[in-house]
Amino acid sequence: MTTVEPRRSGIETSEGAQEMTGRSSAGAEELLRQLGATLRLSESEAAELVNEGPSEDQTMIINMGPQHPSTHGVLRLMLELEGETVLRTKPIVGYLHTGMEKTGEDLTYLQGATNVTRMDYAAPLFSELAFALTTEKLLGIAEDIPPRAQWIRMLLTELNRMTSHLLFLATNGMDMGAVSMMLYGWRDREEGLRTLEMITGLRMNHNYIRPGGVAADLPDGWRDQVLKFLDGVPPSLAEYDVLLTGQPIYRERLQGVGIITAEEAIALGATGPILRSTGVPWDLRRDLPYLHYDEVDFDVVVGSYGDCFDRYAIRINEVRESIKIIRQILDQLPRGDYRIQDKKVTPPPRARIDESMEALIHHFKIFTEGFKVPEGEAYAAVESPRGELGCYIVADGTSKPYRMHIRGPSFANLQTLPHMMRGGLIADAVAVISSVDPIMGEIDR
Amino acid sequence: MSDDTVVEPGPEAEAAPEPPRRHGALVTQHHGDTVLHASRADLATIVRLLRDEDGFNMCLDVTAVDYLTYEPDRALPPGVTPERFEVVVTLMSHSERVRLRLRVQVPEDNPTCPSLFDVHPGTEASEREVFDLFGVIFEGHPDLTRILMPEDWDGHPLRKDHAMGRIPVQFKGADRQDAG
Q1: Residue B103 belongs to what domain range?
Q2: Alpha-carbon dihedral A163, A167, A173, A177, rounded to 10 degrees
Q3: Which residues does chain B have within 8 Å of residue A405's beta carbon, measured at their own beta carbons?
Q4: Does A364 fall in a domain?
Q5: pLDDT of residue B10
């Protein structure tokens, strides 16, 4: 049964297998795409390039994943090999698809944050922030969010960027065979998660950044905990430099592996450390500043070769930049409200409910029906540890989004894999996957 | 004499304010975002012009909206006929540091849209996602297969008439007899 019978007017579509097609049965265009050609060639050129390749009995198609330990979740790669050399790569995703965008249409704007926070589970606060910023844009209150709330959001997301990059360093080390790095990375990330837990109440899936501000003010003793974390990380980074950055075996595994050019990265819509590793200095925090990023001083870390080592170096140095930003936030954090005082959006304080009937009604309405968002559509994006994380919401005037779409950076970044893998060794595949740092929850949504 | 002086009586002289156009497409503003309302036929041409002439060098995202049950006014400029589906393309210009959104109306009885794969190869995965979840067919896409749902799934789940929670559990190769 199909729900729709579109008039196809001669268009061939296949809803069939998502697998990689054999070399002999794949069309020239399909083969080229899987080879990773971003630049379009004429048909004769394409046919020539395709005919140059080895014949089908010289190659082998194997599956890597979906439950391979180095695929970071349930990513499945179909690899075409000639000996040990990777020719074609096709990422197959969807194993973690739980219809979160559909679920989002059934949750109020207040509940929506609990949904989106489960997308990028290594950096949940960024999804919450993108969702909150888009909702505030639709409500027309983007300019009225109290400064303290904005600075708290910056503090939290930068802490989250550090834990996310520390997670990358840990798993990257593990994938390269440096298992001790995994333990060190997790150890330092744990301290960061403890900090987040102290502030938000949860280690992950915080639901802390909400439309209108943040869920609660910073608790007593938060500054000491943040400082403890910040003071602990630089010595660890120095340790990582000894363990990984300067270590010849590690450099051999990463340098010159998985190269991508700036032209390819831009054509494929890659953002974040992948784009920056090719030498494009593009960081939304600097180039399209949101929150108060234009008031803090930090550097955009850029690579020059576009290889796995550059992507590693960018992330480890972004941890240092985040420390720099957080120290400035600690100095500049203003006093004031942590959420907007708009009765229609913000639930009243607990104490008011006991004395005011109106407060009780507002409280009841916000938590049952939810606040209404005027009709319209808007897009807002933030720089997540993986790139541009955007949120597109169509509102229809009710308390639930009519359509909620998250532009997950990993989803676009994953398309760079065939380009990076092509011509490399199967043993380097692990290094390349790891350097893309894909989070499957965000890809499959 | 300055260059601004317009001697000929242009269409601007008409009483009704002519909505601005860019590469032939109507331009509107939504919450500070610039939106282009391109027609299906012109989409690929406009996106190519935007890339080559206006510096919109990156396509961030292709998504869609099913407006089947949308009640309020859709705020489309006059001249654009609302249709059930709308393909939404987000572009980014690194040189101008600005985003641009294109909204393309796609009718229900012929849900096709030209693929942007030739202009921005990075739309490959997102167009597959839109096809998978909305059933919009991208003409010229090299590999239009399902990407998130299982390949033998019936229907397109993000359509508003796709019943949620009332569908039989679909698993490949599973016996469809009643679970005991």
Answers
A1: 19-139
A2: 150
A3: 61, 63
A4: yes
A5: 46
Number of domains in chain A: 1
What is the residue range of A172's domain? 111-399
Q: What is the 3-state secondary structure (H, E, C) of A199-213?
A: HHCCCCCCCCEECCE
Is residue B104 very low, low, confident or very high in pLDDT (cuts 50, 70, 90)? very high
In a domain, A307, yes or no: yes
Would residue B156 count as lying in a domain?
no
Closest Cβ opposite residue B157 in set A15, A99, A106: A99
Q: How far apart are CA A354 and CA B89, in angstroms?
A: 49
Q: Domain of A288: which CATH number?
A: 1.10.645.10
ipTM of the complex: 0.83
Of B88, B123, B148, the CB nearest to A392: B88
pLDDT, one tens digit per residue, over A318-329 is 999 999 999 999
Q: Collect all residues with Cβ–Cβ distance below 8 Å to B129 and sequence separation of at least 6.
A: A411, B62, B63, B147, B148
Q: Does residue B129 fall inside a structural domain?
A: yes
Q: Is A57 within the bounds of a domain?
A: no
Tell me if B95 is assigned to some domain: yes
Residue A229 lies in a domain: yes
- For residue A326, give the amino acid letter: I
Determine the length of chain A: 445
Name the domain count of chain B.
1
Which chain B positions have a beta carbon within 8 Å of A33's beta carbon? Answer: 121, 124, 142-143
Does B156 sit within 8 Å of A15, measured CB to CB? no
Q: What is the CATH number of the domain that holds B105?
A: 3.30.460.80
The answer to the question of residue B3 being in a domain is: no
Across the interface, do A394 and B65 touch by the CB < 8 Å criterion?
yes
Nearest-by-Cβ selection for A30 from B101, B142, B148:
B142
pLDDT one-digit tens code per residue, A240-269: 988 888 889 888 889 888 888 888 888 888
CB-CB neighbors (< 8 A) of B170 in chain A:
none
What mean pLDDT, rounded, does chain B reach? 80
> Which residues in chain B are contacts of A8 at CB distance < 8 A?
112, 137
- Helix count and strand count (H, E) for chain B: 2, 8
Give every residue of chain A whose pLDDT is below 50, as ranges.
1-12, 38, 40
User: Which pLDDT does position B179 carry in this prediction?
Assistant: 46
| Residue B17 pLDDT | 64
Residue A317: per-residue pLDDT:
93
Residue A106, CA atoms < 13 Å, CB-side half-sphere: 10
